[in-house]
Amino acid sequence: MKIIKVTDYEEMSQTACNIILGKVKDKKHLVLGLATGSTPEGLYRCMIQAYKEGKISFQNIVTFNLDEYLNLHQDHPNSYHHYMKKKFFDHIDIPKKNIHLPDGMATSYIQECQQYDEKIRRAGNIDIQVLGLGVNGHIGFNEPGTSFKIRTHVVNLDQITRKTNSKFFRDIQDVPKKAITMGIANIMESKEILLLVSGKKKELALARLINEEISEQFPASILKRHQNVTIIADRAALPNLC
Ligand code: F6R
User: Are 218 and 135 in contact (CB under 8 A)?
Assistant: First the structure.
């Protein structure tokens, strides 16, 4: 794993943005894996700005998001469909047909998971996957104890995850109990992974990722087995390497 240490959230976002825009420019057809949550918001702002300044076009990218809550309508303000529209897709020139998120309202979740895997496979797998890090070590919504072999599946969200994500909802009771997520196997098949980590709240999780053995009890630890992972972490998340 390569670690790029940056000063703060802004520099983390800018660094990730430069890496991704470099790939978008280089490759005719880029398959980009995307995350939601607080971590990638600055990255999306930076990519939107580059687009508005005429420096980049997203016409030829195809995107796959990691996850979506179950039973939240796509227009619900807390759905990840809504998040992605408002924070990224509505502001760039990506064709709608190139955007993929798991459907949390699907009538058959088993079918939805299989189809999502199939779409990723048909797109030629993910070229570069953006990840945030859960305080409990989750990546996507692969919670502690998830098999490393699993592909897209339905999860019961950890109580810690629901509590952490309640900051986006009115109340913890409103946070869905289940979600669909790409599995660890999907993530590990990405050709390149960018893990973004910012803030003191992530310090312990990042230290565990770096120092502990690979274990399904700490899902992000699997990244140590991937050939092309870059962690971009700020000082607050990685104080010991100051
Ligand atoms: C979001 C996702 C999650 C988040 C993680 C960190 O699509 O897959 O793994 O990346 O929960 O969330 P934030 O960035 O809000 O700290």
Answer: no
Asked about 138 being catalytic, the answer comes back as yes
State how far the Cα of 92 lies from the Cα of 49, in Å rounded to an integer.
9
pLDDT value at 241 more than 80: no
0.90 surpassed by complex ipTM = yes
2-188 to CATH, choices 3.40.50.1360, 3.30.460.10, 3.90.550.10, 3.40.190.10: 3.40.50.1360
Find out whether 182 and 152 touch, Cβ atoms under 8 Å.
yes
Active-site residue, selected from the candidate residues 65, 98, 136, 142: 136
Average pLDDT over residues 125-129: 98
Ligand 1 centre to CA of 157 (Å) is: 12
C-alpha 199 to ligand 1 mean position (Å): 13
User: Ligand 1 atom 12: the closest Cα is on which residue?
Assistant: 37
Cα–Cα distance measured from residue 114 to residue 97, given in angstroms and rounded to the nearest whole number: 19
Using the mean position of ligand 1's atoms as its centre, give its distance from the Cα of residue 141 in Å: 8
| Minimal-distance CA residue to ligand 1 atom 8 | 140
pLDDT at 43 (0 to 100): 98
Mapped onto helix, strand or coil, the DSSP state of residue 108 is coil
pLDDT digits (tens, 9 = 90+) for 192-213: 999 999 999 999 999 999 999 9
Is 81 one of the catalytic residues?
A: no
Which two three-digit tokens encode residue 191? 């050709």
Q: Who has greater pLDDT, 240 or 97?
A: 97
pTM: predicted TM-score of the whole model, two decimal places: 0.97
